[in-house]
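Sanity check

After download, print the first record. It should look like this:
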Amino acid sequence: MSDTSALLPVIERIFSTVFPLFAMVLVGFLYARKTDSDMGVANRINIDIFVPALIFSVMAGKSFDLFSYTDLMLGTLLMVVGSGLLALPVCKWLGLAPRTFAPPTMFNNCGNLGLPLALLAFGEAGLSAAIAMFLVSTLLHFSLGVYILHDKAQFKTLATNPLVMATAAGLAWSLSGWTLPVWASTPIDMLGQISIPLMLFALGVRMTDVDFSQWRSGLFWGLFAPFTGFVVAYPFAMLAGLSAEHTAYFVLFSVLPPAVLNFMLAERYQQNPHTVASIVLLGNIASLVVVPVTLFFVLD
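Expected structure tokens:
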């Protein structure tokens, strides 16, 4: 009985973390089933305005110190590259194109799912850590990830990417020690607060496009992505001597499903977008099991 009583707070916390996320995803899914929903404009505004506002508002905050997350940022770099290296022999064994299957293994859903998950599971401290890891993953996705998809791709637009610009501005402001006046911080904070619910709603809308004709491949690679992430992340956490808090942040980050952005870039560079969409969406559906199980271990 005592063991059951001890587990109840953990189970309650897992439920209170996961349910709001998937409730918002479900709202997007149900709405899209009833109404023809084109999220293209909303997603572009979110990436160009709302997410950069969230990044800047957190990084420019008094409590954010990017250098306190250097261990997590290094771990993210190793996890992304390591996951890609683990995918290569599997692609060769199955006779598949690494350009199609490596990126979904490497780049996880640290935006749509990772940021709100960290906030609900660990509070503001978790959100700050998740943003530090998100920044590394995003920068790698728009550089290394794009290069994998198309080795002749142009990277000159990377410096003008709103996410990169917001990161640079937030870092500069954080290092300066300045404090934003309320009249400036309030609208930026409010714009940033739009990003997370909109990400989740958009993910639900995207779920209506699941291609079940390729469900075997989609499910295998959708589960292979969090597996490779964990295989790299947990040993790194142990060897690097990460604190208990940082280990929890990093392990949860490592098992996130493939990012929706993988599909968008595969479509842009014509690397089997329908197959990638199946991997992304079935991987996110599988996270209904993977994320709660992982939360049980990191919160216990």
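If your output differs, re-run the checksum step. Summary of this record's structure: Residues 133 and 220 are 25 Å apart (CA to CA).
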